[in-house]
Specification:
Layout (H helix, E strand, L loop, with lengths): L1 H16 L4 H13 L6 H25 L2 H21 L6 H26 L2 H28 L2 H21 L5 H4 L12 H5 L4 H29 L5 H6 L3 H20 L1 H20 L5 H15 L2 H13 L1 H33 L4 H28 L1
Helix pairs in contact: 1-5, 1-6, 1-7, 2-6, 2-10, 3-5, 3-16, 4-5, 4-7, 5-15, 5-16, 6-7, 6-12, 6-15, 10-14, 10-15, 10-16, 10-17, 12-13, 12-14, 13-14, 13-15, 13-17, 15-16
Length: about 400
């Protein structure tokens, strides 16, 4: 029963990753279809992320009232509606109607399942969980590439929605697996704290800025990697450009897979330090003034590999750093802060690249990698002082 439940949870995170990389991989073709500038992708991405901020902020109260399984089922259903809505959209403005279920569903899954795993499983399970997010995020750009070569970008969203429907069916069939955990796994001895109370805990605000920086860089890669190759490298087909959207996700998946095997021995803090260092190496490789696409492609994979352990490790540390009483609101706040970065910074980059040129992308990413490292190290200092006080 335990193994089957873990398998279902991993499948849920595949479903979380599937919608996230479609916009970036399909946008170079979508913008032509809609007749809008390249930078307009940022407004769609911002709107999706805004919805996830809302769902992340209300997630602590949802977690207190509902079991994780019901949050997951409703959330996947919402993402199916969002994907189908995108697939039937015939104008740019229509997309904004369907960003509502698209974003609300993703944020609720992310917060509730991360809270559940952080409180009940090891760091290895958390890293493997986010590795499976990468599996979903790697699959969908290739679905989009196949759709572009055989049908159109609309089919890329539609085919992904069909896969989500299959995952939703599995989740519904798995409801009995959660019964054992209902009585103990999600019922803490202490009542969960509220968001305002959690914000007063030493170190929490610093982790929120770190999460903002991390997701600013990550989601800029999600949205603009394909466009970077389209703008900087010559002679690439539409399908090949779309497939490059999977590079960062492939790196994330690899980084989290490796971290899953070593996290319990290395520890969360060391994994984060190693990861951000590797991320910076990958960004520098993308910066190299080489006309061929292979060094930049390798650089994005390495960047993703370095990013891999950062997100799951920060969330897995929440109960240890701040206590189980605060873990649900802290994780909800972290998700909200992350989505603020996801909402605004890819859009800011879209405006910046329209004025300066998309070649500036690796320099933009480097700023957030340094911010992420700096604020996390500051968090550790504050936590150590609080414990020794």
């Amino acid at each position: 029963m335990y193994s089957l439940l873990i398998a279902v949870i991993y499948l849920i995170f595949i479903s979380l990753g599937l919608p996230d990389s479609l916009l970036g991989s399909g946008w170079p073709t979508m913008q032509i279809s809609f007749g809008v500038p390249s930078s307009y992708a940022g407004y769609v991405s911002m709107s999706i992320s805004f919805m996830t901020i809302i769902s992340a902020l209300v997630s602590p109260s949802m977690i207190r009232r509902f079991h994780t399984k019901w949050i997951v089922i409703v959330s996947i259903l919402l993402t199916v509606l969002g994907l189908l809505g995108f697939s039937f959209s015939v104008s740019y403005l229509q997309l904004f109607l369907f960003v509502i279920p698209y974003g609300l569903g993703a944020g609720a899954i992310d917060s509730s399942v991360n809270h559940y795993v952080a409180n009940n499983y090891s760091g290895a399970v958390m890293n493997f969980l986010h590795c499976f997010y990468g599996v979903g995020a790697v699959i969908s750009p290739n679905i989009m590439a196949l759709a572009l070569s055989r049908a159109g970008w609309n089919e890329g969203y539609r085919w992904t929605a069909y896969i989500q429907m299959g995952i939703l069916f599995v989740c519904i069939m798995s409801l009995p697996l959660w019964k054992k955990s209902e009585s103990n796994a999600e019922k803490d001895e202490e009542p969960a704290a509220g968001i305002r109370e959690a914000l007063k805990v030493p170190g929490v605000k610093l982790t929120l800025v770190a999460f903002f920086a991390y997701c600013s860089g990550e989601c800029t890669c999600f949205l603009w990697t394909s466009s970077y190759f389209a703008g900087v490298k010559e002679g690439l087909s539409d399908g090949m450009i779309a497939s490059f959207g999977s590079l960062i996700f492939g790196g994330l998946m690899l980084g989290r897979l490796i971290s899953g095997f070593v996290s319990d021995k290395v520890g969360d803090r060391a994994l984060i330090r190693i990861g951000i260092t590797l991320e910076i190496i990958g960004i520098v490789l993308v910066m190299l003034p080489i006309s061929h696409y292979l060094p930049a492609a390798a650089g994005f994979v390495i960047t993703g590999c370095g990013m891999g352990p950062v997100y799951p490790a920060i969330q897995h540390m929440a109960p240890v750093n701040f206590g189980k009483r605060y873990s649900a609101p802290v994780i909800g706040l972290q998700m909200a802060s992350a989505y603020v970065g996801s909402t605004f910074m890819p859009m800011v980059f879209g405006i910046l690249q329209a004025r300066v040129g998309i070649w500036i992308m690796p320099f933009y990413l480097l700023i957030f990698a340094i911010m992420n490292m700096g604020f996390l190290e500051s968090t550790y200092v504050v936590l150590n002082k609080a414990r020794n006080a």
